[in-house]
Amino acid sequence: MEDKIYEIYTDDSGAFTVGEIVARNNDDIVFKGIDEEGKISAYYAMPLKTVKDMIPDTPYLQKIRKYMQYAAGHPYSGWFTLPELAPDPEKPVLSQVLRTAEREDALVTVCRIGDEELLCGYVRGIEKGRVLLDCVDPETAQDLPQVRLRIKDLEYVEYGSIANMLLRFANRN
Prior knowledge:
Layout: E1 5-9, E2 17-24, E3 28-34, E4 40-47, E5 53-56, H1 59-73, H2 93-104, E6 107-112, E7 118-127, E8 130-136, E9 143-150, E10 154-159, H3 162-172
Antiparallel strand pairs: 1-2, 1-5, 2-3, 3-4, 4-10, 6-7, 6-10, 7-8, 8-9
């Protein structure tokens, strides 16, 4: 969608995530997260209402762009790549990411608005504005009970991260 990176703020703490927008509509946004070493780290899908500010072209982002150039040419850049994701901005983007995770049997991390607890698990169904998640304990990789969450209560969904791929591997092996 864009070849521009932003500092993306979701609260007033001053903390932000660096990201490149993949899809956006009036309700939701999906961006590729970029870590402090300039490597693409995950997709983050969230309701647009949770984004407080998006700032382009800061000195920090200028540095991250240089890191991205270095990372792209470095041999370690090939060991991890994000799965393909191309949500249609004409449809609910957050639901599309969840459906992709369900179809790919990928493990995701979700956070509910106003809740500090993160839930990791596999999307097992989406119906009537709710998502069914087979939860996995991120500390032990053991199965936990299913939970049903209202999609409109989600602050964000993390999809495709190396942390989620590793947890999925540990849970399945």
